[in-house]
Design brief:
There is one protein chain. By secondary structure, the protein is of the alpha+beta class. It folds into four domains: 184 residues, no CATH class; 129 residues, no CATH class; 88 residues, no CATH class; 58 residues, no CATH class. It has 22 helices and twelve strands. The strands form four sheets. It has a five-stranded antiparallel sheet. The chain is globular, with a radius of gyration of 22 Å. The structure holds calcium ion (CA). Calcium ion (CA) binds next to loops.
Length: 525
């Protein structure tokens, strides 16, 4: 679910580290939506959608999004059938005008670059389930109840106005009519778009959920069952089959958690209502192209609330860029054709810069007294240069390609495991721009290949900061003169850099990890 188009700077940062991950009781999603990636965690047992997502946006700060804020006990404003247009249209116009003039520039920029939360656990609520009627957690003017109601009342007009654009893409009037004629908005998606869970999961809990014995076993079965296809795809695209299988496993739990929301309805809703309309207009029009060309059966074009579909969760625009017809039936069916799913996912990674023969990264041990200022994405050294600095692979193994360049990542700070990340880690992050996500993919791929668990423990006694505490940390850092952007509770590159500087100034190890210790120090200052 490449939400790449939306992110601007893929891989800008991650949900890992300071931010934690937003997770429901059973699921977690790193960043939003590879767009939103619903991670199919134990979907079979999930009775209600739990979205998790910590996404990055803006300066790379991770956004947490989830269904969190309440699908229970909400007032549930009944949205009557979209009633006519004139009043609603006028109100909508007023709201839009307000949004344009009042929104801070930074918020606008963030919006442009935000990654969406793609995920949701699927097979859960029917699309007709209601919207809470509450304002979204983003505070965006287009997410107020009034704005949502106004936009919903104008929904049919909004869709009808997209016809000329659809026609320019080769969509026939017959197709347009057939698939938009009786479309209704799914307003529950507005709650999902703006949910901001107060509590997030730690990176280790997130990895435990995603990379476990059941998923490893299922992945090995998939690799064995489709061995000839994986081999042919690996040969054609040069992408490691274990990484493809890992993406399949993390995105949809090997297809068992794909999402039940009709993609046309979800993307149409988001194209006409709420704060991400420009982004989703492209997705909606691309979804129309897909049904017009007949690549995916219309009744099978279902997915997450953000519109990601199929076992590896392609967004419609990503489908257009990357999908291939590997089984030669003339259709690029990334839902029901396993060869097309595997090859399209490989093609996605290849087109994003995958280097054949290179792995994603290595778990490494950092020497005593190491200068953690070197653990920075901007410091790229060859593996042999890292070795000269005393950084070694876990278990004393050698680096097979010592001239590959890598950066050092300590996602849970100096007390947790360290990793040297190669080019292909960045490629995985383009699939879904969250460190936690990419780390889960890489680690699951290693496990599918037969390697063991990580060699170093996580600092499991570290408590992940709540949303409120993250706001507070940013505010306190800003009070001390550090640039964290506008405090928003989302931790990314800027906040991490500010934490490092504060750690240096106060004699702590400058690992950039947002620990409770750092917060305590800030409070004591
Ligand atoms: Ca095909």
């Amino acid at each position: 679910m490449p939400m790449r188009a939306d992110t601007g700077q893929p891989g800008e940062d991650a949900a890992a580290g300071p931010g934690g991950f937003a997770c429901g009781p059973l699921t977690c999603r790193p960043a939003l939506a590879r767009n939103s990636l619903p991670i199919g965690i134990g979907a079979g047992s999930v009775k209600r959608p739990e979205t998790i997502a910590a996404l990055n946006r803006g300066d790379g700060d991770a956004e947490s999004a989830g269904e969190g804020r309440g699908h229970m006990g909400k007032r549930g404003i009944q949205l009557a059938k979209p009633a006519g247009g004139v009043r609603g249209t006028a109100l909508m116009a007023a709201v839009v005008a307000c949004a344009v003039t009042a929104a801070p520039v930074r918020a606008q920029l963030q919006e442009e670059r935000a990654v969406l939360v793609r995920g949701e656990i699927t097979g859960t609520l029917p699309a007709s389930r209601g919207w809470s009627g509450e304002a979204g957690g983003s505070g965006h003017p287009l997410m107020s109840p009034q704005a949502i109601l106004a936009a919903a009342s104008n929904f049919q007009n909004c869709i009808a106005q997209l016809w000329p654009q659809a026609a320019r893409r080769g969509v026939s009037w017959q197709t347009f009519q057939a698939y938009t004629g009786d479309l209704e908005p799914d307003l529950h998606i507005m709650d999902l778009l703006d949910a901001q869970p107060e509590f997030t999961k730690s990176l280790w809990d997130y990895l435990d959920l995603l990379v476990n014995d059941a998923r490893i076993a299922a992945g090995r079965e998939i690799l064995a069952k489709y061995q000839p296809v994986f081999a042919a795809v690996e040969k054609a695209y040069g992408v490691d089959r274990h990484v493809i299988a890992a993406i399949w496993g993390i995105e949809s739990n090997f297809g068992s958690a794909i999402g039940e929301r009709p993609v046309l309805q979800s993307t149409a809703t988001l194209a006409c209502i709420g704060r991400r309309q420009d982004y989703f207009r492209e997705e909606f029009l691309s979804a129309l192209e897909i049904v017009h060309r007949g690549d995916v059966r219309p009744d099978r074009l279902k997915g997450s609330w953000a519109g990601a579909f199929g076992p590896t969760q392609f967004m419609p625009t990503a489908f257009k860029r990357y999908a291939v017809d590997f089984d030669g039936d003339g259709r690029r069916d990334v839902v029901d054709s396993i060869p097309d799913v595997i090859a399209s996912t490989a093609n996605n990674l290849r087109m994003d810069g995958w280097i054949a023969g290179q792995t994603w990264g290595y778990e490494v041990v950092v020497p005593q007294g190491f200068n953690y200022l070197w653990a920075d994405r901007s410091r790229q050294l060859s593996l042999q240069e890292w070795q000269r600095l005393g950084v070694q692979r876990v278990g004393g193994k050698v680096f097979p390609r010592p001239t590959d360049r890598a950066y050092l990542l300590v996602p849970a700070g100096a007390r947790g495991p360290a990793f040297l990340m190669l080019n292909n880690f960045r490629v995985i992050m383009r699939y879904n721009p969250a460190e936690a996500y990419a780390l889960a993919i890489g680690h699951l791929a290693d496990r599918l290949r037969g390697e063991g668990p990580l060699g170093q423990p996580w600092p499991r006694d570290e408590r992940v900061l709540s949303l409120g505490e993250r706001y507070e940390m940013q505010q306190r850092l800003a009070l001390h003169g550090f640039d964290v952007g506008e405090p928003d509770g989302r931790f990314g590159a800027k906040t991490r850099a500010a934490i490092r500087e504060f750690q240096l100034r106060t004699g702590l190890i400058p690992d950039g990890f947002a620990s409770t210790q750092v917060l305590d120090r800030l409070r004591a200052q």
